[in-house]
Amino acid sequence: MPATPAAPRPLRVALLGCGVVGTQVARLLTHDAADLASRAGAPLELVGIAVRDVTAPRDAVIDRALLTDDAESLVDDADIVVEVMGGIEPARALLLRAIAAGAAVVTANKALLAEDGPTLYRAADSAGVDIYFEAAVAGAIPIVRPVRESLAGDDVRRVLGILNGTTNYVLDQMATTGASLEDALAEAQALGFAEADPTADVEGYDAAAKAAILASLAFHTRVSIADVAREGIRSVTAEDVAWAARTGYVIKLLAIADLREDGPGRAPSGVSVRVHPALVPLAHPLANVRGSFNAVFVEAAAAGELMFYGRGAGGAPTASAVLGDVVSAARHRVLGGKGPQESTYAALPILPTGAAITRYQVRVDVEDRHGVLAQVTQVLAEHGVSIEAVRQPTRQEDEVDDAEDGVAHLVLTTHAAPEASLAAMVDAVAALEPVRTVTSVLRVEGA
Ligand SMILES: NC(=O)c1ccc[n+]([C@@H]2O[C@H](COP(=O)([O-])OP(=O)(O)OC[C@H]3O[C@@H](n4cnc5c(N)ncnc54)[C@H](O)[C@@H]3O)[C@@H](O)[C@H]2O)c1
Ligand SMILES: N[C@@H](CCO)C(=O)O
Ligand code: NA
Asked: Coiled coil: which residue ranges (predicted)?
């Protein structure tokens, strides 16, 4: 009779951090233990949870006997280390320590990866262990794995996404309920979407970190957060939101990463990566991404357009992505094999902000007299910018906007041009004698 194979030894999982995400990771690891063991090929045993304060109140799902404030000892004796503490240090030092000790690591920490991912990738490579980070970009949405693995045989040309749940929630609330930015942000914080310091969300740092990670994977080029041109949503006003709706758009904080291709059949000359508020046409699928949801559009040479949609923030959705990575790393421990390594062979230059191709919608207050529009359009022509539409508000819209007598509003929407030409054009329009104020400049994307 053949011998019964020995039961695989349990894999020791250490959890670093027990906040919004960590609590849900602990819950899923323990709640679904039998199913996870079958999928991973070995039981996954949560052996400890590193926290700052072991006496602090915790959700009832947390087994307090697992809490420790000695993260280093925990890391030294684990097969898989899950980092959901956030921040640069001590997260980086603990992950490097785990890797050096031979553990596979799973992290949701986009800020760390976008600042210093290559240090971790190199360390994992030399130690021959897995580093996984699906939760770091767009929470529950599988996007890291599809870009890194499913599209490894294709050429990604462009990634366009809503990558921050907090700002999408805030902009959606401003557009649909008329809430102020501050009130909507407080709600997003209460719902667990926001970063520990919500400035990272509002000022676009969080989306920029995710954009850097995605661009690195998509274009086989190292892109760090410092390479990303970034603007947050702080300057978006209720009037901008209202005008977007009147002109057939909705304002979204977009992350855009694309290749500059200087002609058919020519090698790409660089990569442009940026995060900023943008007007998205109401008919575009990204316009319908509501609340804290995220979505990522990917354009690839052979695949064409792909869209990924789901919950980009929140404890349980993010924990789902973490658990998927834990199971992948566990399978490698049981069966052998290793996850993908960093791929940077293309090493494309990062293009300056001014080289990005975009469109502008500009709102200007001008003297209400004959010939002003001709002067404005002349300036656009001088900067090589062509106009797609000029709109002058109706009397009713002017009343809503409380227009002064003798002042006319103009809303100019341009065709695509390099950012540098568009910015120079706006400065020249602002300098015209009959122009009182440039009230708003927003980029138009996805049209
Ligand atoms: N909340 C989300 O929706 C979400 C989604 C995707 C990724 N993330 C990322 O996941 C990570 C965790 O996010 P979160 O929302 O759970 O944050 P959180 O602030 O709720 O939790 C982090 C926890 O780690 C603990 N911690 C911090 N430093 C520590 C240390 N030195 N030792 C022990 N514990 C420490 C904190 O006390 C806190 O309880 C971050 O990197 C974040 O960017 C969060
Ligand atoms: N603060 C982030 C969490 C998910 O990474 C967001 O709002 O999208
Ligand atoms: Na993800």
From this structure: none
